[in-house]
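Shall we go through a protein fold together, starting from nothing but its sequence? Please make up or recall a protein chain and show it to me in full. Go ahead whenever you are ready, and we will take it from there.
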Amino acid sequence: MSADEVYRAVTDRMVEALERGVVPWRRPWTLAGRPRSLSTGRAYQGVNTWLLSLACQEHGWASPWFGTYRQIRERGGQVRKGERSTLVTLWKTLEKQDRDPGTGEVTARAVPLLRTFRVFNACQADGLPARYFPEPGEERPIAGSQAVFDGYLGQPGAPRLRHDVQGKAYYQPAADEIHLPPMTGHRSPEHYYATAYHEAAHSTGHPSRLNRAGLTSPDAVFGSHAYGKEELVAQMTASMLCAETGIDTDEIFENSAAYIGSWLRTIKSDPRMVVTAAAAAQKATNLITEPGRQALPESERAAWASADREIEAA
């Protein structure tokens, strides 16, 4: 598949779900944990999170583990006859050398390469070890809701938080400030954190952080393409953080249906939108959760760092 064909396939998958009333970035992983790779043990990143979680929701798969046909065979399993695979993508960066025809000088440049794989869930196979079928809740949240928020705001150069509004919430890029109603101004603590995470996601786009065009471009005005993408990035990030901290509930996302129409328009306007927005949301999530990840074992911190590098090309 060419890169354009991959973008279109992913976009069509998201559009199909939204048109059924399913928000792909809601509940981005199973009750047993986030989708993980059999080959590396790492959590999938970016748009693969949505592709695999959608498949889990639709088929009722409880296992978070996915692998290719060969990887499952290598672990003692056998994919059942008639089972259908799920598409995942992988970005790699290759170094290409260019020679100046006049001077003969050789310069190197990074070239992104998009590869695709077909994977199966552990629930589609027989014979795999029991460790690939964890009980719901075995994967603990990375940290509590307030700890994640405090960890981000406590980083050097972090945005300032102001509890000085009612009935609305927003991030102000010029002042680098998040404005929220106090927790008592929300229907529940969970609603407060879902809103806080959304605005924190916007703040990661500040020039001093990830420098996202949706925050920094003068063209990013309400109703514009850049504005729509930035809102999609913030919503995807908030969904990831709600799942990370264990507050991803029906009540939190009960008003998602009101936004499906605008999300459909945004996604249909650009076949690359979902992939690039998901990659941006992953980087925003990683930035916000970085203090919590420092408490993880060295092996898992290294895995996160490797995953961060892999999504840079997207």
Remarks:
- The longest helix spans residues 273-293.
- The chain has one domain: 3-311.
